[in-house]
Amino acid sequence: MHMPEPDSDVIERRDEICATLRTIIPAECVIDSVESMRAFDSDGLSAYRQLPLAVVLPETVAQIADVMKWCHQNGIKVVPRGAGTSLSGGALPLADAVLLGLGKFNKILDIDFDNRCVVAQPGVTNLAITNAVEDQGFYYAPDPSSQIACSVGGNVAENSGGVHCLKYGLTTNNLLGIEMVTIEGEILRLGGKHLDAGDYDLMGIMTGSEGLLGIVSEVTLRILQKPATRRALLVGFEDTESAGKAVGDVIGAGIIPAGMEMMDGLAINAAEDFANAGYPRSAAALIIVELDGPEVEVDTLIDRVEVIMKNAGASSIKVSQSEEERTLFWAGRKSAFPAVGRISPDYMCMDGTIPRRRLPDMMIRMASLSQKYGLRVANVFHAGDGNLHPLILFDANEPGELERAEDFGGDILRACVEMGGVLTGEHGVGIEKRDLMGIQFTEDDMKQQQRLKCAFDADHLLNPGKVFPHLHRCAELGRLHVHKGKMPHADIPRF
């Protein structure tokens, strides 16, 4: 993995840049000592680390705008950072870029039960939204496993999902409005409490844009009433292929569960050791199916799903009999990632998506790749929507193991595309999948995406080095011949 060569002129001006930043925002909001910046040298993809040029932690939207405007005018790159939980390296700093952290934007600004929405600053954690409204019987549907730590601004940047996105959608399906700051320092509002906004879907463009187009400074999120009844099934299988087929059988029967997750034997036992959730340790695969709605509907669907699972070859079926038991079923799944961290010095969490019907094929492919690279893999899937999260176990202290893990992960993602899927479901491209973009998109596809980037950030100052393996200059994408860095007839206004 290679990042863009840092601009030596910018690095030489570091002291001057930091001094100027302290005149733009309060001095205590600028961090430039090596020791203090260590806390920001990586994100959730911790195999890669890089100290930023400086860290700024603004306290108001106006301060964000002032920093962005000054950086734009002076050609300084900016890397946005939320909670730093990105698993694709989306918040990895650059040596010649200012890291703009949003950790101080941690307040819920408005709870509007009449319009069923919450207005919050981008640094508010995902789980905090539900905690703020649950006493009135409401909740926020997207629930990534990192919801206790990940921020809602970062959820917008990556279009995060979670275990309940099968029925209730990803962030984009639960986002009503945003306030954003452009690289020029302009503050824009897109959407709001109303159901739909007119004109171009700029909010849709911003959702999942990975910090390349602007910085989210406020979000308006849809909240939902809690279902009358929620119950879950814990289903064990003796082989992963049967479990994969069972997932497709449930959806094929016209049943859309609130969530349907799958784990293999290695993940099952790691999670059970960690959470004591009552998982069947002898199972080769485990499916958790949650159904919600009116009690009579849920009871009927539970019976139907039990029949489908038995016909698919389930070796064990357990149905939650209380809210506490349902929560315990999910506790193991929610803690699967940290649980795997107890059985391996390091792991790399992948993120790809395939058609549900190819789950059995992918399980076979995964086992074969594990043998090829000599590395274990613990599989944790959002099986209902085909979103895979294989955890590749390795030891970075062993020479060559990190490189083998990277190659293993690359082959998993290539297999996803080969099977009719895509490179990412919710973690984003970042740096992790950047150099694989060419296996899913043609050169023309990527040029078109970069034209959109140019419309928002013509100088490529926002989060450079991410998503695009080869970044074209905007003038080139506009089909203008550039000679020695200069456009012909530069005096003519261009639109």
TrEMBL record:
Names of the cofactor(s): FAD
Statement: the UniProt record of this protein carries the keyword Flavoprotein: yes
Pfam families assigned: FAD-oxidase_C, FAD_binding_4
Keywords assigned by UniProt, alphabetized: FAD, Flavoprotein, Oxidoreductase
First-tier enzyme category under EC: oxidoreductase
PANTHER family, per database record: GLYCOLATE OXIDASE SUBUNIT GLCD
Name the record gives this protein: D-lactate dehydrogenase (Cytochrome)
Natural source organism: Puniceispirillum marinum (strain IMCC1322)
Matches recorded under InterPro entries: FAD-bd_oxidored_4_C, FAD-bd_PCMH, FAD-bd_PCMH-like_sf, FAD-bd_PCMH_sub2, FAD-linked_Oxase-like_C, FAD-linked_OxidoTrans_Type4, Oxid_FAD_bind_N, Vanillyl_alc_oxidase_C-sub2
Listed GO MF terms: D-lactate dehydrogenase (cytochrome) activity; FAD binding
EC numbers, comma separated: 1.1.2.4
Domain FAD-binding PCMH-type, residue spans: 48-226
